[in-house]
Amino acid sequence: MILSIIQLIAAILLIISVLLQNRGTGLGAAFGGEGNVYRTKRGMESFLFKATIFLAVIFLVVSLLNVLY
Q1: What is the DSSP letter of 52?
Q2: From CA 69, how far away is CA 3, in angstroms rounded?
Q3: Closest C-alpha to 14, from 65, 64, 56
Q4: Both ends of the chain: CA-CA distance in Å?
Q5: CA gap 29, 14 in Å, rounded
Q6: How many whole angstroms separate alpha carbon 46 and alpha carbon 8?
Q7: By the 8 A CB rule, do 58 and 10 touch?
Q8: What does the pLDDT look like over 4-17, one tens digit per residue?
Q9: Phi, psi for 4 (deg, rounded to 5)
């Protein structure tokens, strides 16, 4: 029961963190529309990127634990 609640919270936070990230890279970037491919992440963008990775790992681990138990 507690794993399901943690999984639900992690899923909601993961969705929010993905939606808050920069939307400047679209389909046009795949065809050469964007010139800033090799730029660094700073400030809030870096925090959201790291938080998304952390939440994805938490979601994966909790999902695996939920299947095993």
Answers
A1: H
A2: 9
A3: 56
A4: 10
A5: 24
A6: 24
A7: yes
A8: 999 999 999 999 99
A9: -65, -40
